[in-house]
Amino acid sequence: MADEDQFFTTFGRYDEFSGIQAKLLSKDLWVDPVGEEYEEERVMLTKLIRTLDEYQEQAYLLDPYLEQLVEPVVERLKYHARTLVADPSRKVSQTRFHFLTALLYHYIKFRGSKTIARYFPHEVDDLAVALSYIRLPNAEIRSGSQWDLRYIVLLWLALICKIPFNLSQFDEPDSLGQTADALEALGREYLDRAGLEREGAALLLSRLYVRKDTGSRLSAFISWASEHVANQGESEVLRVIGILQVFSEVLQSAPLDLIKDEIPKILALVTSMDKMKSFSGNTLIRKFKTKIISRVGLRILPPNPNAGRRRVKTLTGDELELQMSNLQESEVPEEIEVILEALLQGLEDKDTIVRYSTAKGLARIAEHLPTDFSSQIVESVLALFSVHSMAAAAMYDLPAIAEHTWHGACLACAELARRNQVSDSNMPELVEWLSKALYFDIRKGAHSIGSNVRDAAAYVLWALARTQDSATLKPHATNLANRLASVAIYDREIHIRRAASAAYQEHVGRMNLFPHGIDVLAKTDFYSVSVRRNAFLVAAPEVAQHPEYRDFLLDHVLNVVLRHWDVSIRELGSQSLKNLCLIDLDSMATKALQTVIPLLESIDTADVHGGLLALSELGLAYQEGVADPVARSQRLRNVFRNLSRVSYDIVKAPRNHLVTAAACRLIAATLTIEEIEAGNASSVPDWRKIVDVGIKHRVDEVQDEAAAAMGTWSRLADCSFEIERLLGESKSGGPILQKSVAKIVGALDFEKNKSMFSKSVSFLLDGIKPSQRGTIEARRASYVSIPLAISNVFPRFLDLIPSSTMNQLINAMVNGLDDYSIDERGDIGSWVRLVSIQGLTTLVQLLFDHAGELPDFEERLPPSLYVSIVGGILKQGVERLDNVRQEAGKCFLKLLELKPPGVNGNERWEPPAKGILRKLFQEDSEHHDWADGAWLFPRAVKLLAVPTYRKDLLTGILLSIGSKTDSTQRPVSKALIEYMETLPVSSETDEYTVVAFVDDLLHRVTSNLTSNAIVIPLFHTFNFLFEAGVLERLADDDAGYERLEKLRVCATKNVARWKNIERINEAMKIVVALLAFERVRRSNIDSIHCFLAHPFPKIRYGTAEYLYLQVESADYGVDDTSDIESILLETTWATITEGEAKEASDRVVELFSADS
Question: Which residues belong to any copy of the Tubulin-folding cofactor D C-terminal domain (predicted)?
């Protein structure tokens, strides 16, 4: 798939592309590929197709090269066709021929049939070749899978039909009309196909009927078409679509004198289909009907050479009036009225492609009519806006069906505007309707409809800028500027923001009427509005710096954005409101407050939610923008008291979690000491109850906002009693309350609640302990809150957090790196590991930054503890989950970049082997993507040479090897093998060796014999090392041989008691691999009994199969293995008894021992 962000300037891969294509085309079409040839040719075709796909969005870049690229492919097809026509019995290679047709079809798909067809051969003698080829009875072209080939040949015939020679010249003397009959029969044969063959057939027939020598056949075709249309059967739908395609093409390109008499018949046939239900429900049929009706109208009207050019602009900006058509009203055919009525109805069709086709057809007809007629068409289109608006009190009250009508009307207005059919007198009404259409957004269930209407409205305004003069648009300039700017900034959909920005740009560039147009455009250009957050929070306040836009943007946020159906839009809108108000806090915040208050009393909870969010942001604006504490407190109270307008019953309703969260956010943003001290006399008596509801709510967002409210309360006053109550309730409460209270502890300010810090720390330490009552979510919340709680008191109140407490908390975070909890959701322990990584990094940075202020820095963060933190994060950096590795990598690099603490002997807090770490992960690399295993693991395994990191690093690597994710397992295995190959087997020095590595693995096995989660990845590691040949060197070394013996013991000890099938299988593979070493095999051949005679039939069968494959491929010191293979293959290991399996196993061992 092509990269969406990839942009090319030239077809820079032409040489490579043409070389691959030439190599593919050089293959003999009559010979099947042998051996690896098929795969090689398939890969070549895949490369060609992928290259075309990469350039799909910029296909025009290949235009200079198309002739050199397409013609060899077409000539190859022509050669094949000529050969097969000359000798139909000759057999072609289906594989290579499929590659040829697939490549040619992808050219057509890539650049379009009209462009590629130009390079098809179109000589006179090609007609007979192509026609005979497609009619071969038993050829490959008749295969059902060769639809693309038939489509190509039909396009080829359609092109040949344009040759300026009478087709009768190709007929036999006694069979006049034979060629034309064959072409017509061929086109009719494929006219009912569901795929592209129908389009090729329709194009072929249309080219046939527009020729002077065969045009007379059109009448008979219309009669034939009428018969099939009259059948009205479901089986006729595809054929009718093909028939309509033929009529559409004929009406577009045929000379008028050739089809003049047939036009009424075509129009009558098409209009008769309106009453046929089997056809009226098909979108394509309605689309082609619209095309045909509009083209009929164009053909019966006199041509107008100046159509669409009533007023044109020169390069210097001057405007020229062109002479209009002198067509009189009396000369307009009567059929035009019927056609216009049908097209106006088509604007309300339920499908977009029908509406768009109708709009284009209507506009094309309008530009051929007298001015009065075209003005009536514009008025009729404008009248469509009011069809559903008469009974609607507001835009939100429109029925859903109004979307189709409004969209069709906007498209028609845009096409009419593009052709300059909109008169000055129509502009006020048009602008009024477009002002509404830009905000057309009707909620329908959990989503809304109307984005296409808004998009089309921006299209109309774009078109108006290209055709209208400055004088016409000047009265509407400021209104349009404000509306386009507001849509470009605040619309929910990215394509509409971009469309509005493009329309704004067109007006600025052509009219220069919009206030501060250039400056505003720079702030709302294509890229600025592409990211919603940037548009709302950056572009909006920048545009509002201009007074002409400020009030309109504010009104739009208050009346539209805050009431939007999408929660994320309301939240971003409230944040944008804050940024707007900070421009002129006194006037804008006052106006905003007056508008927001009525929303709180709405019956729609979306309005209430938007109003509460707005009040919260106004409170933040006052905190940021008012310096005087007294004035700030008074304004915050004015905002806070409006919370009482929302019923407490609405806030506490279980389904209104958004309102509950917003109410808690408002409390957090606007609570003052006066309101706290007022108690029950507060302007919002229920605010404590609201916070309590939020604390006990099960939705995370509500809990977060309630915790923030408690944080504000704790900063303003002593709330120890409330904190103690919550800590007590959490002991007997459920995991939801535990999680919520943990979040509160992280948000508290302990300056006025010092007595609660030690109790809060104890609560967090208890919360991270796994228990039956707790959940992973509650534990994660406790881990998140530990660094937050420390940051809230450190270094301001060192007496609250002595070094012992600090060590206890940091050690708890380090222990969080070993949380590997698993449930049906997967590795849920990774949630704890992630926040532990982040929290430890934060704490280390905090301690390093204030080290100079701490007399007991070393006690708070001993060097050994710091090294364990670095090692633990490094271990997470090589683990199996991409997101954990990515976060660990970011935090590890932060630790590397930290300046040493400002204490004596600060070199003790430098990560061991810091120079190596920097070289591996910071230097000589374009990116530091730790999620990319291919980049990370070859670097990480080199750290095994550093003893300090070896244990942690090996733990992480083994977990990654045991992963079932190929993108992790494959690169880590490859990296470890390559690293092991560089190590010596053993050494007298401290150098890391293969023996030392095996010792590390064996120690883990012997220390965790009862843990399958640890032993299985270790056994798996040994097996892939055996497969890679890394451990072969151990057999020749005395120390190495001793390790292999230990490994054999670990793999066979008590194996009959094991219950885990995977563990037994991995152990079996180890034993079989060890027997390949002669030194091991001589003394331990009996080990195979453990598996060939295992109590589990599945193990016996699997062992025999695996051993058979290994005996075939590896050297086990047996000259003739046929007897061993026979026993392994012929014994029914899965069904025989354990005793019989023991006898068969004994015979295998004897045969091995005989030659050993």
Answer: 868-1063
Q: Is-contact 839 783, C-beta < 8 A? A: yes
CA atoms of 390 and 602, how far apart (whole Å): 25
Q: Which residues are paired to 311 by β-bridges?
A: 321
**Dihedral class, residue 35 (left if φ above 0, else alpha if ψ from -120 to 50, else beta):** left
Amino acid at 777: E
Which residue's structure tokens are 């008291």? Answer: 641
Pair 855, 873: CB distance under 8 Å = no
Question: 911: cis peptide before it, omega within 30°?
Answer: no
The long-range contacts involving 1138-1147, CB below 8 angstroms and separated by at least 24 positions, are 1138/1093, 1138/1095, 1141/1092, 1141/1093, 1141/1094, 1141/1100, 1142/1089, 1142/1093, 1144/1092, 1145/1088, 1145/1089, 1145/1092, 1145/1093, 1146/1089
- What is the identity of the amino acid at 1021? T
DSSP secondary structure string for all residues of 906-935: GGGGSPTTHHHHHHHHTSS-S---TT-HHH
Dist. CA 606–CA 656, nearest whole Å = 10
Measured CA angle at 149 (ends 148, 155), to 5 deg: 90
Structure tokens at 657: 């979690």
Q: Measuring CA to CA, which residue among 308, 427, 265, 286 is closest to residue 355?
A: 286
Tell me the two tokens of residue 829: 């322990």
Q: What is the DSSP string of 509-532?
A: HHT--STTHHHHHHHSSTTTTTSH
577: Cβ contacts below 8 Å, ≥ 6 apart? 554, 557, 558, 562, 592, 614, 617, 618
* Maximum alpha-carbon separation in the chain: 116
CB 310 within 8 A of CB 321: yes
Q: How many residues does the chain have?
A: 1156
Between these two residues, 168 and 702, which has the higher pLDDT value? Answer: 702
CA distances from 361 to 98, 289, 364, 367, 421 (A): 41, 11, 5, 10, 13
Distance CA 975, CA 1024 (A): 12
pLDDT tens digits along 542-559: 999 999 999 999 999 999
Instruction: Please count the other Cβ atoms lying within 10 Å of the Cβ belonging to residue 451.
Output: 18
Token pair, residue 1079, equals 């030194």
**For residue range 65-89, what is the model confidence (pLDDT) as tens digits?**
999 999 999 999 999 999 999 988 8
Beta bridge partners of 826: 823
* SS3 at position 443: strand
Cα separation, 606 vs 282, in Å, equals 39
- Helix %, strand %, coil % of the chain (to 5): 70, 0, 30
> Lowest mean pLDDT: which of 138-147, 473-482, 1133-1142?
138-147
Closest by CA to 586, choosing from 625, 638, 529, 615, is: 625
Name the nearest CA neighbour of 977 among 1045, 1031, 1020. Answer: 1031
Q: At 313, is the secondary structure helix, strand, or coil?
A: strand
Q: Closest Cα partner for 1072 from 1083, 1060, 1080?
A: 1080
Quote the CA–CA distance of 741 and 1087 in Å, as a whole number.
58
C-beta separation of 183 from 204 below 8 A: yes
The per-residue pLDDT of the chain, averaged, comes to 89
Q: What is the pLDDT of residue 303?
A: 78
Beta strands 442-444 and 447-449 are: antiparallel
- What DSSP assignment string belongs to 883-895? HHHHHHHHHHHHH
pLDDT (0 to 100) of residue 925: 56
Q: pTM above 0.90? A: no
DSSP conformation class of 448: E
Q: How far apart are CA 95 and CA 33, in angstroms?
A: 8
Q: Which residues of 574-597 are buried (b: 16+ CB within 10 A; e: fewer)?
A: bbbbbbbbbbbbeebbebbbebbe
